[in-house]
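Schema walkthrough. Field components (list of strings):
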Amino acid sequence: MEIFYSKDIDGTTIRLNPEESAHCVKVLRHREGDEIAVMDGAGTLLWCRLDDASPKEAVATVVRREPGFGGHPYRLTLAVCPTKNMDRYEWMAEKATEFGVDAIVPVIGERSERKVCKTERLERIVLSAAKQSLKAAVPVVAQPLSVMDFIASFASGASAPVSGAASVSGSGALPLGGASADGGEPLKLIAYCFEGEKLSIREALEASSQRDVVVLIGPEGDFSPREVAAAMKAGFKPVHLGASRLRTETAALASAAALYYKYI
Amino acid sequence: MEIFYSKDIDGTTIRLNPEESAHCVKVLRHREGDEIAVMDGAGTLLWCRLDDASPKEAVATVVRREPGFGGHPYRLTLAVCPTKNMDRYEWMAEKATEFGVDAIVPVIGERSERKVCKTERLERIVLSAAKQSLKAAVPVVAQPLSVMDFIASFASGASAPVSGAASVSGSGALPLGGASADGGEPLKLIAYCFEGEKLSIREALEASSQRDVVVLIGPEGDFSPREVAAAMKAGFKPVHLGASRLRTETAALASAAALYYKYI
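Field assembly_structure (string):
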């Protein structure tokens, strides 16, 4: 099964962009009258009839809508410091999408070696991973912000929307802080390496009925004490990820897997 | 903390190979008298005093041994069909090592597009990942064999050892089939995409007290019905990995994560 992607949906008429049109018509050789599946990136799969098999702008008519296609029964925001080597971060974004993630937020820590993170490539990667793993919702890739600003967005009363990846997300903005989608406060977890009594991420997830989960993962050099203190104050719960020393990108994926397994 | 690796251990005298010696003496600038940590690849960390800071063959004396360093409370064999793109397989080997895996067996399925798999690079990757994640045991990378031969190695009475990665494994041979390390039959799981009533891998792991676990993961085109039938006959339990369509390498990692979380 091959899923196409379009944001150009007007009532029951869908247009594919040149890249998707070429793939549909030239590579997969779809012809007028064929049934094709198109995702809107926001969670709905649209079963369509191809009306115009143009390799530059294919046009199709929506026959049936399937909301929540390939969805998961939770909302996960992974706020992860970019790794020195961006390949590792991109890999994490791809794999987290396969498991199920709703937003990936590149956060820059005080000890981050990498202070910049371009999101265009990440957006392409999560779109491709969503299509490949048959999910009609594409994770939002947020614009980078500092760990402190990310934490501050959860301070009581704060609800400043941080601009997401408008071209992909559907909503165009990612409400990072404040109330969660279902009105309650999200379960906010921070994984760091400092010693101390902590729950494992599995225990923390099992102890909560909150399906809106935020996990904050630090850089190679860990969070600064100031960042940890600010996170505690904002209600983040410290968790550990077990005895293994996991790289940043592996820790992020381990978090996605833990939530995935809670609802498997 | 930096861990060196040596197989050249004679009583309390350890010699590092030229690559490790150069890293120890030229890059990290260790001098005679320094304390260094050396892993034997079989699970023991050796705290040593550097006696000869030769950049070509450093020599050290063992001061203290720490068996089971960075170990995990289970034994996991991941038998995974190589992916078309070997980068993805190598990534899986690295990440599985971070979580904890004892043997990686490249198995060639009847529907595998990739029929060959060179293990030299994989061995270097798991050694590097073990060092990086502070584990003194390096996973064995077995020589590739067919899915059918792998399954046959578990048939009752079979105990043919399949040659492992002698240069890294310590044991030089990986007893694939037959009895497990603790004498019992390992828990053998097969993940495949055919429809049908199956436990999730989490449920299957939770229902078993067996700490010796084998997970068989198929190629992009899934196992053949013949392979699935042979696995059932050999006592493999079918499991699913949840609603998400995971790539081969992600499925392997999801399995490693499931076992990791059982004992976290």
